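Hey, why these numbers?
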Amino acid sequence: MSRSDSAAGPLSDRRILLPRVKPGDAIAAALAAAGAQVECVGVTRAVPGPTGPRERAAATLAAGEYAWMVLTSSRTLEFFNLSA
């Protein structure tokens, strides 16, 4: 995402690296609205681990054996099948 030619603001003439690529990124849009030239670059990637531990955890959760479940990020949901 890059700023429009008419954008001016507190971040005018600033180039900011946002180390993620996210469609409709509100942070990138806000930076651009403040006049920044925003470069969105994916520097990490999510890779699922082995399915066995996730499947066992999902089965244990479905059996009601957990009082709480804490997910550390929204990406976790992409790899955790709660329908098991």
Q: What stands out?
A: Helices lie at 26-33, 51-62, 74-79. The chain has a mean pLDDT of 83.
